[in-house]
Amino acid sequence: MFRSLALFLLLALVAQGAGADRIKDLANIAGVRSNQLIGYGLVVGLNGTGDQTTQTPFTVKSLKSMLSNLGVTIPPEVNLQLKNVAAVSIHADLPPFTKPGQTIDITVSSIGNAKSLQGGSLLMTPLRGADGTVYAMAQGNLVVGGISASAAGSSVTVNVPSVGRIPNGATVERQVPGKFGGRDDDPIVLNLHQADFTTAERMVAAINQALGGQAAQAIDASSVQVLGPADPNQRVSLIAVLENIEVVPAQGAAKVIVNSRTGTVVIGQNVQVGPAAVSHGNMTVTITADPIVSQPAPFSGGRTAVVPNANISVNQEKKPMFLFNPGVALDDIVRAVNQVGASPTDLIAILEALKAAGALKAELIVI
Fold this sequence. Notes:
By secondary structure, the protein is α+β, with helices and mostly antiparallel strands. The chain has helices spanning 5-10, 23-26, 57-69, 197-211, 232-243, 330-339, 344-356; strands at residues 21-22, 27-29, 35-44, 85-94, 103-110, 121-128, 134-141, 143-144, 147-151, 154-158, 163-172, 188-192, 216-218, 223-226, 246-247, 255-259, 264-267, 272-273, 276-278, 283-289, 292-294, 305-307, 310-316, 322-324, 360-361, 363-366. The chain is 20% helix and 35% strand.
């Protein structure tokens, strides 16, 4: 049913095309994914920058519970006032195929009101997956990128000192269950990072050309399945071949992305504008107070009075109208808008008006 592995490797050479990408960069293998881990623990050894126990009672309860498990009993009426302990959450990503005994990086974040985790040490903390199973144990000294200092009522904070990392801070205790091998009829499924029918069709053609026959078939716009051997060793070799096959991805749909909060506008490569004439200008209304003092004639018995007066002027910028011919591309759009000196806010207004007029041949997405 399958060709020999040697034949796969010999047929894996694919002619490189302009703008071609490896399948490794366009898709991932179904089932090969990382898993998120989370835990709750205590950081000790802080220099007076820990949780204020009166406002975070869970820190004291956690410490008492930990000491009780270690054989140290603290009476319930004793109210601990600690400044060198902080309650933290720990999260990490467990990469695929990670085996027990290997280590992973972890991130430690304060969940109380600790000012800084600088110089602290994380005590042994179990890290659990979504199923509640413990997959790793975390412990170690924190590396904090931020710093906080205060004196005489003044304080300064650089970056975020309440978050730190521990490189190789967790030891994996359990492997995520899964079976990389399969039966003879279990295909290898490639999931595209961006669903596109054209890219999926080109990927199928490139794989079949490299491997021969009809080894690959498209499932939908985002998935392509390839017949693969059941033996894990041959399966790994086949995936290594598949990852390095080059495919020319399809050009994306015409889109204009507008961030109304920051004024950022991103115009896609295939955006075009139909026939349209655009004129955009700003009107400035200026009102200035110019009071007039009314002075009565000598010996008239009148009083000096201030008469309010205001000067109003209207100034409208004279910006030329520019014309978009049919099929105008991205370069012409940017050049025309720059000629009238439009700001990002003005550009957003112009694009929205073009979309409303039906002249913008693209999807306008406002985020």
